[in-house]
Amino acid sequence: MHLLLGKRVLRGKSGRYTIAKHIRDTVWLANNQAEETVIIKSVLGHPRVENERDILKRFQNSTSCLRPLLDEIEDLPKPTAILKFVSRGILEALSTIHEGRYSIDIKPDNIFVNYTKKYLDSDVRFSEVQLGDLGGTCAIDSKWATSGTPLGAPMWRSPEMIMDTPWGTPTDIWSFGAMLIYLIYAGYFNLFDPTTVPYDYEEYSLEDLKQQFRYFGPWPGKYEEIASPETVHAIMWIMQEIPKSDTTPFSLVSEKEVRKEDKQFIMEIMKMD
Q1: pTM for this one?
Q2: Plot region of 139 (φ>0 → left; ψ -120 to 50 → alpha; else → beta)
């Protein structure tokens, strides 16, 4: 099986291309079928790149002194269909694990897919999707869960796990939502990954929590009843540190970015309750 975000093969009018490396925002290195290195640029949402494509198509056959456009990638399978297929498989696996009163580490690196045999020649991309790497799976009554021990990478953790409070199966639903947002935006963009602190710094988790608050806050008042004094103090500090004017509610995301139905679903599962 392949990692969900592992090997990517694109189909052009003149051949197929395997993505090798993401260079920056709209640019990737790839290998063609002759194992030659090519550059792939995305025009989606990038007028300058779209204009470059149109200019090359108009003038490149008139001179050899312009770097030519070699091929155009054909339309990919509909992202919504892919997301639904992947989400359904993940939720089915989660349901099974949760029935046994266990929590699992949800992140893109742990999602594996099988391509259909004809995925390069049809709109059908995956034949199955599976959760893997269960090494971080814990019973919800284990010492790690009941003591609030953080597990997994901070950017996929739920607020309660980041704050070292007892956690259970709902933490997986938050992680699933975070991963779903990641897949919708693509381009290796993570909504909760702070740009102000390196990943290996102690403050990274706190900055990650602040990102969660910016997009999905505030916390409900019941936190004062169920959280420790230290946790309540941390929550109050974050709410003072980030006034309402500095928040960016996910509910205000435009339909151009996220479909209305998808946004409503995400808002339902990403409640900080």
Answers
A1: 0.74
A2: beta
